[in-house]
């Protein structure tokens, strides 16, 4: 058995420098019974360049101790073809990171645009060792490990279009670059390209329809293998016949893509296609004005 605890405190302050520029500084101090003390300062700035354009940037230090699950739990999903075992020898990860983003919404426009970028430098990155997985009896077994030194960087471009009062569409593209500096190769299981698109409609009679697509490309696993690409389509319909409750039904992974338990590093859904339905609501005295 293992026991550990932590105590943390956080403080921040902000200052407005002129009508359009804001600075926020903060720091988190943490003491861990197993790993000792750590400090994580952060500095962020925001610039309201115009009525339509907001630009933000931040930089800071990160500290993350391994969770109880990562240290000692056996996450046994053998029924779905995989198992993840804890690693009691994990070290905490520390990092430096920078983030920037900009949002543009011209007055009167139905389109909102957003772009963001980030970079991180991580020591002792905690990750599931996908490349080191083994397969036995139709079950893929993995564990956690530390990557001595790693870097990640990426960018996202998003657009939202309010096509009509009752119809809106969103699309986002994300690029991710990774590097395991200790091994001189990419981090395993990190797809470099992801596209997410969705459509939401509010129809007459209190009916809502939501469709979502997520496409991820294959990712590096080791010198000979890559994880498979994935295309997932989800759908949900909601009916609100009254003010106190709603009926909903949906389909996850409508195309039925499913993880192959005999393939190490397969990140697709272990469940395949999933249908669900339900009812939700509030009691009258739970309603808020």
Q: What would you note in describing this structure?
A:
- This protein has 289 residues and is mostly beta strands.
- The strands form 2 sheets. The chain has a 16-stranded mixed β-sheet that branches. Strands 14-15 form a two-stranded antiparallel sheet.
- The model has no long low-confidence stretch (mean pLDDT 90).
Protein topology:
Blueprint: E1 6-16, E2 21-32, E3 36-48, E4 53-64, H1 68-72, E5 74-77, E6 82-85, E7 93-104, E8 111-128, E9 134-136, E10 139-164, E11 167-180, E12 193-203, E13 207-216, E14 219-220, E15 226-227, E16 230-239, E17 245-252, E18 274-281
Largest sheet: 16 strands, mixed
Class by helix and strand content? mainly beta
Could you estimate the helical fraction of the residues in percent?
under 10%
Determine the N-to-C terminus distance: 50 Å
Order of helices and strands: EEEEHEEEEEEEEEEEEEE
């Amino acid at each position: 058995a293992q026991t550990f605890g932590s105590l943390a405190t956080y403080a921040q302050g902000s200052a407005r420098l002129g009508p359009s520029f804001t600075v926020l500084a903060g720091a988190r101090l943490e003491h861990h019974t197993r790993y000792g003390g750590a400090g994580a300062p952060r500095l962020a700035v925001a610039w309201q360049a115009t009525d339509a354009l907001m630009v933000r940037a931040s930089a800071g230090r990160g500290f993350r101790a391994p969770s109880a699950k990562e240290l000692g739990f056996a996450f046994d999903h053998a029924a779905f073809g995989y198992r993840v075992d804890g690693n009691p020898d994990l070290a905490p990860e520390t990092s430096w990171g920078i983030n920037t983003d900009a949002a543009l919404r011209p007055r009167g426009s139905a389109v909102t645009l957003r772009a963001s970028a980030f970079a991180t430098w991580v020591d002792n990155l905690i990750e599931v060792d996908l490349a080191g997985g083994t397969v036995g009896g139709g079950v893929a077994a993995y564990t956690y490990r530390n990557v001595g030194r790693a870097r990640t960087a990426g960018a996202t471009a998003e657009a939202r279009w309010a096509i009509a009062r009752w119809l809106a569409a969103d699309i986002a593209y994300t690029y991710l670059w990774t590097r395991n500096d200790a091994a001189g190769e990419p981090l395993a299981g990190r797809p470099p390209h992801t596209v997410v698109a969705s459509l939401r409609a509010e129809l007459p009679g209190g009916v809502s329809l939501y469709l979502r697509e997520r496409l991820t490309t294959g990712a590096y696993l080791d010198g000979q293998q890559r994880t498979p690409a994935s295309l997932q389509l989800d759908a949900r319909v909601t009916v609100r016949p009254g003010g106190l409750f709603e009926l909903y039904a949906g389909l996850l992974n409508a195309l039925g893509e499913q993880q192959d338990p005999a393939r190490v590093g397969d990140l697709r859904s272990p469940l395949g296609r999933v249908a669900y339905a339900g009812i939700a609501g509030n009691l009258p005295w739970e309603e808020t004005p």
